[in-house]
Amino acid sequence: MLQILVRKFLEVTLFLLFITFISFLFVRLAPGDPVLTILNVDELSVSQEQVEALREEMGFNKPLLVQYGLWLFRFIQLDFGQSYVTGQPVADMVAMSLPATLELAAGSMFVMLIVSIPLGSLSALYRDSWIDHISRVTSIVGAAIPSFWLGLILIHLFGVQLNWLPTMGRDGFMSLVLPSITLGLAISSVYVRLLRSSLLDSISQEFIRAARARGLSEGRIFFVHALRHSLPPVITVFGVSLGSLIGGVVVIEVLFAYPGVGKMVVDAIRQRDYPLIQGYILVMAVIVFTVNTCVDVSYRYLNPEMKLKERNTP
After folding, report:
1. Less CB within 10 Å around the terminal CB: N or C of the chain?
2. Is 204 helix (H, G, I), strand (E, B) or coil?
3. Backbone angles phi, psi at 194, to 5 degrees
4. Stretch among 43-57, 105-119, 198-212 having the lowest mean pLDDT
5. Which residues contact residue 206 at a Cβ distance below 8 angstroms, ignoring those fewer than 6 apart?
6. Does residue 240 sit in helix, strand or coil?
7. Which domains, ranges and CATH numbers included, belong to the chain?
8. The whole model's pTM is what?
9. Kind and range of the H or E run holding 190
10. Residue 9's CB: how many other CB atoms inside 10 A?
């Protein structure tokens, strides 16, 4: 157990060093003068002495490696810095916006589950039937439609024409419905096809035929044996595609003016607010790594063969 903990600690340390350095480098190599962006003025309205003074105050005149080292030293002390635009601590701004993003991600996952599990299961149980054909066509169409275009359609239909749901902001449960449906439907198509394929493979296995020979009910065979055996590939793909989910959250938050970290970082990129961008990347990196670790643990739990191999390995 100690070796596993040490290995995980080294992995997360190297992962965070790599992702923060790459993002730090790319953000600062973007075209334009960040000092003028922060001042919100053009080059002719301020003197060069003022620009150079602010550049020196913020450390922009130092080499990139030195700037990264100073940022890393502050990060080790749990100091994410302050926003160039608002002057607020980055940690406080991320902490204020993160719950909204987590709500949206949870709502999207709920929509994905209630869509993909029934459709994928029915498609596998009634293979080559009209249910299977409808499910496959629906998943293909869902994969082909961009999430922002689907969001615009839902806004026009349920927000403008029918006036049933709010289309902007975060004001209670109803404000979460349209963004969650938009993102949940956008990502569910992948899992419908994957669950169908995995279930078809499980149903054809020997242990399913053995369960039927023992007289188990079809419901027990499906939920206890077939579905559980089909979940590891789905969970693995979810861990791998988590980055795409986070990217989708950013698009949806901007589209619906939802005040989460995605909308916050888009505004920060537009304003060249380096500390806020870096804080967002760091928090998202930690979330991705944590979820992938949980996926790895759950995969071992859901797949008894892996646990048996680990026990037999000297």
Report:
1. C
2. coil
3. -70, -45
4. 43-57
5. none
6. helix
7. 19-76 (no CATH), 93-273+286-312 (1.10.3720.10)
8. 0.73
9. helix 174-203
10. 10
pLDDT of residue 314: 46
Residue among 237, 233, 228 nearest 291 (CA): 237
Amino acid (1-letter code) at residue 42: D
| End-to-end Cα separation, the chain, in angstroms | 15
Cβ proximity of 106 and 177 under 8 Å: no
Collapse the DSSP code of 160 into the 3-class scheme (helix H, G, I; strand E, B; otherwise coil) and give the result.
helix
Both tokens assigned to 38: 């922060």
CA distances 157 to 104, 152, 154, 166, Å, are 20, 9, 5, 11
68-123 pLDDT tens trace: 888 888 877 777 777 877 778 888 888 888 888 888 888 888 888 888 888 888 88
Quickly tell me which residue has 């680990």 as its tokens. 310
Q: Whose structure tokens read 């209670």?
A: 172
**Quick one: CA dihedral 155, 156, 160, 162, positive or negative?**
negative
What's the pLDDT score for residue 32? 61
How many other CB atoms are there within 10 angstroms of residue 288's CB atom?
17
Token pair 């100073």: residue = 70
CA distance 16 to 287: 11
